[in-house]
Amino acid sequence: MMDRCVSGRVAIEEIYPGAPAFLQALREDIDLSQQETDLLVGDFRSLLYAYADEGLSEQTVFARLGSQPLKGFYRQLTQPERYHNLFTDAIFPLSETAFNQNVWRSTVRLPERVQPALLQAALDMVLPDFPYFSTYLRHGFFWFDLYGMRRRLPVSPLRSRPGAPIRPGRYKPLFLVEYEADGIIVEGRHALVDGTGCVLFTRALTRTYLHLTGRDLPHPVRDHINCAARAFPNFQDLYGIPEHQTLPSSLIPSRALHLAGRPKLLQAAGYSAISLSARELTALAHEKGVTVTALLSAILFLCIRDCLPKKKRLSGRAKLAIPVNLHKFYPLDTLRNYSMFINIELEPEELTTLEDLLPKVSDQLARQNNPQVVGSMIGGILQQIQSPVTRYAPAFLKWLVMCFARLVLWEPWIMTSIFSNLGVIPDEFAGDIRSFGVAASAVKSIRRKVVLATTGDRALLTLTKTTDDTAFEEAFLRRLHEAGLHGELTEP
Fold first, then answer.
1. pLDDT per residue over 315-333, tens digit each?
2. What are phi and psi of 290, to 5 degrees?
3. 259 — phi, psi (to 5°)?
4. Cβ-based neighbours of 240, under 8 Å, separated by 6 or more
5. What is the pairing mode between strands 448-455 and 417-424?
6. Nearest Cα residue to 40 out of 27, 57, 25, 21
C-alpha cells in the first residue's frame, strides 16, 4: 500500500488521483535495476510535487507529460551499442588525460530561476532522442570506444570549477548537465562531442525544460544531423580516403607565439563573455568586404599582439586556429566529432592595424577553408590511423604516444589561440531565453579560446582562459570599440 504522506507532505496520490496509474505505467516502461527504476520514477514524483506547489490542475500536468515520456528507452541492452569511427573522434579519447581535457560548455540563461525537478525530468525525457550521449568510454585492446548504456543520469548544481575535466570511469557519462540560479549548463568532453553536437543537445534539453514549464514553443528547427542514430557511418566508407597533398605552411608544426600570463597548476575554468549586436557585427563585416569570421579573427590578432610577453624573447609566429565544420564539404548525418581546423599565421611585425590585417586574414581563410586543403588533412589522418602499425598497436601505447604528442609537441608549438564561430543558433525558444553561450575549455599551452554563438540579434563571444589576469578581455573590448563595435562584458 502506498504511503499517504511523504516527508510530512500530503501524498501526491491525494493531490493528483491519476498519479498512481501514471507512475505505474512509467515503472512498467523501465527495464533496469530496482535502484535505477526507483530513481527514474522518483524524478517524476518530484516533478508532480513541483507542479502541485504551483497549483496546476491534473489535466494540465498529464497533458504536458504525455502517455510515454520515457519512450521505452530505459531498458537493458540485449546487444552492445558500439560507437567506433576511425577518424578524428578516434583521436580525442587517445589524447586526453584525467587532468587535461578539451571540454565544450554551453549555457542557456533564462528570465527566471531554474527548477531542478523540472530539469531532471527534462534530461530523463531528452536522452531517448540522443542515445549517443548515453555512453561511456571503454578501454579496448586496440582503441578506446564509446559503448551505449542505459541508466538514469542526474543533474547537479554547477561545479566549483566550470569546464574542469570530467573524470572518467566505468559506466560514467562523458557529459554533465548542471544548473545555477538562472542557467542551464551542459558540459561534454571532446572525446564525446564537438561544439555543434553540444549545441544540438542543449537546444533539445532547453526546449524540453521550457515545455515542462508550460511554454508554448514554435516547432523546432530541424537539422541535417540525425541525433537519434545508434550507429554512425565511417567517413572512408562514404567518401574514401582523400589524396594527401602538400599542406600550407601554417598547418605544418612550427613554433607558435604564446600569450603572457602564468597558467594555473590545475586546468583553469576562467570564463568571461562579451555581448555584441549581431546586426552591427554583420554590417561592419559587410562594409569591410569580409566575413564575420575574418573580421573577428583580425581583431583577435590585435589582441594577441597586445597580450604577448613584454620581457621574454619572442620567437615564432602568431597562429590562430579556426575549426572547420566538415559538413560543409562532406555531408554526413553523424553527431560525432566531425571537424578539423585551419591555422592563420602571421609574423609578429605583421600585427599592425585592422585595415592591414583584414586582407591577409581573409586571403589565408580563403586559401585554406576549401575541400582541397581540408581533404588533404583528412587523408593524412586516415592514412596514419589505418596503417597496420597504428591500427594494431595496443590502446595504452597509442594513448601514451598521443598524449605526449599533443601536450608536449603539438599544442605548445602550433597554436597561439583558437577561435570557433558556431554560427547562428536558431531562435526556436519564443523569446523565453535571455542568452545562449558556448565555450571551449582552455588548456595550459593554449591560454585563450574564443567561441562565437549568435541567437537573434545577440552575438555572444565567450572567452576561456587559464590565467588569472584580465588583459585579454580588456584588449578585446578596446579593439572592438576601435573597430566601431559596442561590446560589453556580460555573464558567460
1. 788 999 999 888 888 888 8
2. -135, 175
3. -75, 160
4. none
5. parallel
6. 27
**Closest to 272 (Cα-Cα) out of 432, 60, 488, 491:** 491
8 Å CB contact between 13 and 24 = no
Q: How far is CA 369 from the centre of its chain?
A: 22
DSSP-assigned letters across all residues of 140-191? -SS-EEEEE------EEEPPSSTT------TT--SEEEEEETTEEEEEEETT
Contact status, residue 379 vs residue 241, Cβ threshold 8 Å? yes
pLDDT of residue 6: 47
**What's the predicted TM-score (pTM) here?**
0.93
Name the pLDDT band for 269 (thresholds 50, 70, 90).
low
- Residue reference for cell 532522442: 129
Residues whose CB falls within 8 Å of the CB of residue 202, separated by 6 or more in sequence, listed in order: 106, 108, 184, 186, 436
DSSP assignment of 290-318 equals S-HHHHHHHHHHHHHHHTS-SSSPP-SBE
Answer for the pair 304, 257: CB distance below 8 angstroms, yes or no.
Answer: yes
Q: What is the predicted pLDDT for the residue at 265? A: 67
Give Cα separations from 173 to 28, 126, 143, 273, 304 (angstroms).
Answer: 25, 15, 18, 28, 36
Provide the pairing of β-strand 448-455 with 270-277. Answer: unpaired
Exposure of 259 in the CB half-sphere (CA atoms within 13 A) = 34
**Position 404: which residue type?**
F
